[in-house]
Design goal:
Layout lengths: L9 E8 L5 E7 L11 E2 L2 E3 L7 H13 L8 E4 L3 E3 L7 E10 L12 E8 H4 L6 E6 L2 E8 L2 E4 H10 L10 E2 L2 E2 L1
Parallel strand pairs: 1-7
Antiparallel strand pairs: 1-2, 1-4, 2-3, 2-8, 5-7, 6-7, 9-10, 10-11, 10-12, 12-13
Length: 181
């Protein structure tokens, strides 16, 4: 599904820690029947509220609500390029990613209404190409994915993490009913 460029209406925090190893915070979304991303792995974040001054404020607010982490502007490393999310789920949205660096993983206070779990994904392990797979996560659609616990990291979050880690994009082909998309 192609999307015309638009203004982002949501933001995510990509939170990186260097100690004890390079890692990224990944959340497991709670199961909700009306949520197209129900049960998926994601970065903290969400849609902009009217009260949010801008998408950075959205990112900081959503991260605090979902994880209890209070991000600050001095931890912001980079505002990344707008990215589309939800194209394969037929819920397209433009998202503004922000990269933050923390010295070490902080304690988490997860909101159980939104988040069922969290983990710090080891960057070195994620960069091991042999651990990645093409998996049919949607009917007739093979998606590049990385196994995590009892599911897969795939789609928007997978693409962003590969991009940040400057991994080869050539092996990220999506196929739908045998055709590259």
């Amino acid at each position: 599904m192609l999307m015309a460029p638009q203004t982002a209406s949501a933001a995510v925090a990509i939170i990186q820690c260097h100690h004890p190893r390079d890692s990224y915070l990944i959340l497991r979304r709670a199961a909700h029947p009306d949520d197209p991303w129900s049960g998926h792995f994601s970065f903290p974040g969400g849609r902009k509220d009217q009260a949010d001054e801008d998408l950075l404020a959205t990112c900081i607010r959503e991260t605090a609500e979902e994880t209890g982490i209070l991000l600050s502007i001095d931890q912001l490393q980079q505002r990344l390029v707008l990215e589309p999310a939800g194209r394969l789920l037929k819920h397209p949205i433009w998202v503004q990613p922000f990269l933050f660096t923390l010295p070490k993983p902080p304690p988490l206070r997860l909101d159980p209404k939104e988040i069922q779990g969290a983990l710090w994904l080891d960057a070195e392990l994620f960069q091991t190409a042999s651990l990645h797979q093409n998996v049919e996560l949607l009917p007739g659609c093979l998606c590049p994915a990385y196994p995590v616990e009892d599911y897969y990291l795939w789609g928007f979050t997978y693409r962003l993490l590969r991009s940040i880690l400057k991994m080869d994009q050539a092996n990220m082909e999506l196929t739908l009913s045998g055709h590259k998309i």
